[in-house]
Write a structure and sequence with these properties.
Order of helices and strands: EEEEEHEEE
Number of strands: 8
Strand content: 35-45%
Shape: globular
Largest sheet: 5 strands, mixed
Structural class: mainly beta
CATH architecture: Roll
CATH class: Alpha Beta
């Protein structure tokens, strides 16, 4: 069974860690509902909920099987608490779908706000 996964940083097509998506299926571009922002958390982005953010975050939706999800959970440091995999509300055409993403697991105090889109340096 496959799940939908929203990626917004180095896992996107053309990103430096896109090879982690090998064997998974790109579905399409996407944007979160307002209320999310990206921060630079050490040369890669961390998505956090911020209720007053009006734009949301741009990224991609991928169809991910169980093996791919387990691989990505390890890569994203879910067991260590670096990220948490959570359902994220997206705008149309994914507004009526259950879509997961990786939410940064630590405070972003003192970190540089990126805004709505991560761009590789």
């Amino acid at each position: 069974m496959s799940e939908l996964l929203f990626v917004y940083g180095t896992l996107k097509r053309g990103g430096r860690n896109q090879r982690q998506m090998a064997g998974l299926a790109f579905v399409g571009p996407a944007r979160t509902q307002p209320g999310f922002r990206l921060y630079d958390v050490g040369g890669y982005p961390g998505l956090v909920a911020e209720p007053d953010e009006r734009n949301g975050v741009s990224g991609e939706v991928w169809s991910v099987d169980a093996a791919g999800l387990a691989r990505l959970d390890r890569f994203e440091g879910v067991a260590e608490g670096l990220y948490r995999r959570e359902v994220v509300p997206l705008q149309s055409p994914f507004a009526d779908h259950v879509v997961f993403t990786y939410v940064f697991g630590s405070a972003v105090t003192g970190r540089r706000a990126i805004g709505e889109e991560w761009r590789e340096a």
